[in-house]
Amino acid sequence: MIYGVYSNEVVVIPNVPSFDTTPVMGLTATPSDGTVTLNWQPQATAVNYEIQRKSSAPGAAFQTIQTVGAVTQYVDNAANTPGIAGGAPVNGNTYTYRVRATKS
Predict the structure, then answer these.
(1) E strands, 1-104, in order
(2) Spatial distance between the Cα atoms of 14 and 40, rounded to a whole number of angstroms
(3) Which of the residues in the chain have pLDDT under 70?
(4) What is the spatial distance between Cα 32 and Cα 77, in angstroms, rounded to a whole number?
(5) Strands 73-76 and 63-68: what pairing?
(6) What's the CA gap between 12 and 64, in Å, rounded?
(7) Which residues are 63's β-sheet partners?
(8) What pLDDT does 87 receive?
(9) In terms of CATH architecture, what is 28-102?
(10) Which residue in 19, 69, 78, 80 could disulfide with 88, CB within 3.0 to 4.6 Å?
């Protein structure tokens, strides 16, 4: 038997209530002594926000440092990042942050 090529793939999750999947907007970071304060614009359907950070070290990957509720600010410091590899931000180091909305 001769077969044709498969169609494109489609991913679907049935019966999931509407959720805004657009990126979180307006992310800003304000550094201080051993602390970085992040602010972003609220997303209407967000239940939580997942915050990720990576260092500027070669090959460094983003890792989730915290999941917070429906707030629009997070302070990355030693008190809020226990058990996170790399711990709190270190003065003089460069970090990249990103935030995404989650429904659960």
Answers:
(1) 28-32, 35-39, 48-55, 63-68, 73-76, 95-102
(2) 30
(3) 13, 15-19, 78-86
(4) 10
(5) unpaired
(6) 25
(7) 53
(8) 77
(9) Sandwich (2.60)
(10) 78
Contacts of 87 (CB under 8 A, 6+ apart): 78, 81
Residue type, 63: Q
Q: Is the pTM of this model over 0.70?
A: yes
Residue 56: the pLDDT is: 87
* Alpha carbons within 13 A on the beta-carbon side of 36: 23
Note the pLDDT of residue 80.
64
Measured CA to CA, the distance from residue 63 to residue 85 in angstroms comes to 9
Residue range 62-84, pLDDT digits in tens: 999 899 999 999 999 866 666 66
Length of the chain: 104
| Strand ordering across the sheet containing 28-32 | 28-32, 35-39, 73-76
